[in-house]
Amino acid sequence: MREHPPLSPATQAITSGRSSGGRSLAPALWASSTWESESLDDAHRRATGLRQTDFYSRYCNPTVRSFEEAVRDLEGAEESLAFASGMGAIASTILGLCSAGSHIVAQRQLYAGTLAFLQGPCARFGIETTFVDVATPGAFTAAVQPGRTMMVLAESPSNPRLELADLDELGAIKGPFTVVDSTFATPLGQRPLDHGVDISLHSATKGIAGHNDATLGVISGDADLLGEIWAYGVLHGATPSPFDALNALRGIRTLAVRTRQQNDSARSLAVMLADHPAVAETHYPGLSEHPQHALAGRQLLQYGTVLSFDVGSRDAAARLLDRVELCRVATSLGGPETLVCHPATSTHASLTPDEQESSGVTPGLIRMSVGLEETVDLLADLEQALA
Ligand code: PLP
User: Fold this and answer.
1) How many C-alpha atoms does 303 have within 13 Å on its Cβ side?
2) pTM above 0.85?
3) Most informative mutation of 107, 159, 186 for ligand 1 (most atoms within 8 A of CB)
4) Is the dihedral of CA 339, 158, 73, 88 positive or negative?
5) Segment among 54-58, 290-294, 377-381, 382-386 with least mean pLDDT
6) pLDDT tens, 206-225?
7) Mind listing the domains of the chain with CATH numbers?
8) What single-letter DSSP state applies at residue 56?
9) How many Cβ atoms from other residues are within 10 Å of residue 358's Cβ?
10) Of 93, 158, 260, 343, which sits with the fewest C-beta atoms within 10 Å of its C-beta?
11) Does ligand 1 come within 6 angstroms of the Cβ of 205?
């Protein structure tokens, strides 16, 4: 029999995640929170089965399941599991796998919510974290305490300075569960599981859903491991909404064309910013001067849709945000509109000044999520705002 070549991920974004729709081309919305049982035996089967789609929506929901199947295929995973938000995925993964006395190794340069979760609730529950520098080769491995470290948690590219964790180094760590928050890359920009990492995690609120109309998180990995996190997750209750899963599934269909356009624009903007006299530093893995450009070439399939740059001071940052016209001042990323934000006073406002400094969140730093507007219009807007 003639073997079909494997489908490319961009094609899988179209073909996958169709189990709940019957012959309908658009995904079906299953808004129901509960399903009828035929008998006590039937009720028992549903109540005790793993991720039954026809029992109760906190356990599983057919629309959410279709979304999970699409992400699973894009990640090249055995299973995927969705949550009500990226933070829901992070909290459920950590608390599902760690206990009082567990040790985590995480990078210092994290999304502020993840950092706050490790330093607040996790510390309160007796889960201790050692923070390392994401860009120092071997730092994660060196901080692992054999027999005690339960998890190694990385975020790559990191928010907001686009620093990279070496995925091959993480994949080679045996013993602790390795988790990579791959939100900034999207499943088309990076595949942590191919490097031997245990769990790839996304805030699907961002590029995956891609339209600023869904709040979701998703993790991918081996079925047994995700089954364990699912068993915790149904009690934690960060349950994804089927409406949001529907929007995200629709978003996935166009993920490839969206990220292609956003990557092209991001690269052009980064090149312009890197040469601009009003810009002190530009952070984008696709620039040859990015300190980890070679690593980016080895592990990123796309350089990304987000960049950051430093205009020198808080005042200069405030002036720039005041002057942009096409770019909108808002947090979040991965949507059709180009968004600019000032991490020190928004996404990373909860960090102390020392933490901001060690995470590279400088007073003049601006983060930009590149949208789907024409590149020339974005270049013109930034140039007039910087002038
Ligand atoms: N991980 C990263 C890298 C993020 O940037 C964010 C939010 O900005 C999150 C996780 C949290 O995602 P959510 O807002 O969907 O909870």
Assistant:
1) 24
2) yes
3) 159
4) negative
5) 54-58
6) 999 999 999 999 999 999 99
7) 9-253 (3.40.640.10), 256-386 (3.90.1150.10)
8) B
9) 14
10) 260
11) yes
